[in-house]
Amino acid sequence: MTQRLRPSEQDYQPGYFMGTTPPEPGHPVQVAPGVHWLRMSMPMALDHINLWLLDDGDAWTVVDTGLNIDSTREAWEQVFQQHLQGRPLARVLCTHMHPDHVGLADWLCRRWNAPLLMTQGEYLSARMVSAGMEPTGTEGLVEHFRVHGAAPEQLQALGARGNFYMRMVPSLPSVFQRIDDGQRLRIGEHEWQVIVGGGHSPEHASLWCAEQRMLISGDLLLPRISTNVSVYPIDPDADALGRYLHSLERFDALDAATRVLPSHGFPFSGVHGRVRQLREHHAERLEAVLHACAQQALSAADMIPLLFRRQLDTHHLGFALGEAIAHANRLWAVGAVRREADAHGVLRFVAREAANPARVQALARTAAGLAMPLAA
Ligand SMILES: [Zn+2]
């Protein structure tokens, strides 16, 4: 029996130009002159992260750090002893604030007396969340999810989990070097341009090297899994999905032969096909949500089964709720739904117009909805 593929799956297959055998932790593999691929294990469903060690003349620049856990520190020790060719680690650049990317930044920066390079939005957000400042802490998150319809037992489980971020990122360097959109960084022989994108985190930095036609995409563009797009309690009305879709437009402009170095999965080619597929993915989901909101008023929590078919544990429930809010807020931002609050402040979304696939497809392609809605 043949499985019917959706159109988006037919026109995109990632070209894994480095194959599908990952490097052993602690042993970098060269992907291009001056660019080395390091993979670190993670004890979770997403079981690894890719880091990039860039030849920086008489030193090294590393992109992302891995989780703050013993096995990652041990793998780093192996890299220090066997693979740095006697040259120091001179710069630590983090694409964004998430624990698998920034977890060991403080450790690496102290160890090598190296500066931390990040965008301002990512660095300040990381500092704030790791300090547990509300509403980015547990209380704020639980209230955010309550307003979006999470059940009492789900809120209880999320509350009991406590501040995951503070545990995973207990410390950060107290100063940083700011990098910004469009900035060109000279790293060894090559120039890398910073491309700032949003939706996944506040000001995520990807790096583009025109000479090598290579993109270090961080979490913004992954070959298989779709990037988590979330709305956080500090910016609860954000059109995070609009921001993410807007960010994808930047990758449309890259050379078709671009080789992408993602934080998860394998290095791949086919950037334009992948971007197209991600747009389809979100368009289909926006369409399903809008259609359901035309039948009855739905909270973001009510939308989760429309977006995720599998059973979710507490960790994934947080991602799923964030993603559901992002889809609801996208439809709200472009005026396709209105929202109503009940006596407990729980928000539900109701379609303003018939679910029209062409309209929703258009919503997934344009960033026009980034403006705030005029009415509730
Ligand atoms: Zn991330």
The proportion of strand residues reads 15-25%
**The number of domains:** 2
Distance between the termini: 49 Å
CATH architecture of the largest domain: 4-Layer Sandwich
User: How many helices does DSSP assign?
Assistant: 13
Shape: globular
> What structural class should be given to the helix and strand makeup?
alpha/beta
Tell me which ligands are bound.
zinc ion
Q: Taking strands numbered 1, 2, ... along the chain, how are they ordered across the largest sheet? A: 1-2-3-4-5-6-7
- CATH class (first level) name of the largest domain: Alpha Beta
Descriptors:
376 residues, disordered N terminus, Arc Repressor Mutant, subunit A, binds zinc ion, Metallo-beta-lactamase, Chain A, alpha/beta, 7-stranded mixed β-sheet
Please provide a written account of the structure.
The chain contains 13 helices and 15 strands. With 376 residues, it is of the alpha/beta class. It has 2 domains: 7-133 and 163-278, Metallo-beta-lactamase, Chain A, CATH 3.60.15; 279-367, Arc Repressor Mutant, subunit A (Orthogonal Bundle). A 7-stranded mixed sheet has the order 1-2-3-4-5-6-7. A hairpin with a 6-residue loop joins strand 9 and strand 10. The radius of gyration is 21 Å and the shape is globular. The N and C termini lie far apart (49 Å). The site of zinc ion (ZN) has 5 residues, from loops. Zinc ion (ZN) binds at residues 96, 98, 200-201, 219.
Summarize the structure.
The protein has 376 residues and is an alpha/beta fold. It has 13 helices and 15 strands. It has helices at residues 7-10, 70-82, 99-102, 105-112, 120-130, 138-147, 152-161, 164-168, 240-252, 271-295, 300-307, 314-333, 357-365, and strands at residues 29-32, 35-41, 48-56, 59-63, 89-93, 116-118, 177-178, 184-187, 190-197, 204-209, 214-218, 259-262, 268-269, 337-341, 347-351.
